[in-house]
Amino acid sequence: MSRTSNRADGDIVQEFLSVADLLEGPQLAQLYAYLAQEGEATVQDVIEDLDLAQGTAYSYVNRLVDTGVVEVTQDEQPRQYAARAIDLTVTTAAGDREYTITPALIDAVGRRETNADIDTYIDRQGVAGLATALTYAVARERGEVTHRLMAEDLEISPLAAEMILQALRPVVHEHYEISKDVRHDTEQGVNV
Q: Which of 34, 39, 61, 132 has the most CB atoms in a 10 Å sphere around its CB?
């Protein structure tokens, strides 16, 4: 699911609203991220792997299907579901900032309920701030920046930068190709 110029304006607005639901609901984001990682899954898989009650799992899956971010891939019982790809770019009204909403960002939002550092960061910086932090986390894992540079750029404390970078590390490694040599050198404090 990506924004394209040949789609009707109503489709683009609906797509944005669907993605906004994911960013506002950590459990919906977690479910979307799970389906994106698994490829396909049944509601029973969701119940077992995400430890959701049966009614909640069906409600969430149906809600995501209704909003168009998840699709039914097998109609026979048990039904299989898969996440649709999301790559939506949003520009601020002033036009000075642009944010790309990807499955990695949705995954990070989905971890809000289980990761206090992500939760605190979103409370202080918002989802847009988390999107920016995720960009820095990818760059850090690639050995391109340090937590101190991020802290200076974003005018936050070095400790806050380090905490969110560490919290986002699993998200980065699940969604991006990171060279093991770069990661090892970065862990040793050497930028390559």
A: 61
Query: Is the predicted pLDDT of residue 153 greater than 50, yes or no?
Result: yes
Q: With beta carbons less than 8 A apart as the criterion, state whether 64 and 20 touch.
A: no
> Using CA atoms, how far apart are residues 186 and 143, in angstroms rounded to an integer?
5
Paired with 70 in beta bridges are 83
Strand ranges inside the chain, DSSP E: 70-74, 80-83, 88-91, 98-101
- Specify whether the CB–CB gap between 15 and 68 falls below 8 A: yes
Euclidean distance between CA atoms 10 and 20, whole angstroms: 15
CB 142 within 8 A of CB 171: no
Q: pTM of the predicted model, to two decimals?
A: 0.77
Is the model's pLDDT at 145 over the cut of 90?
yes
CB 57 within 8 A of CB 46: yes
**Which are the contacts of 180, defined by CB distance < 8 A and separation ≥ 6?**
none
Q: Which residues of 157-179 are buried (b: 16+ CB within 10 A; e: fewer)?
A: eeebbbbbbebbeebbeebeebe
The tokens for 57 are 């799992």
- Between CA 192 and CA 40 the distance in angstroms is 37
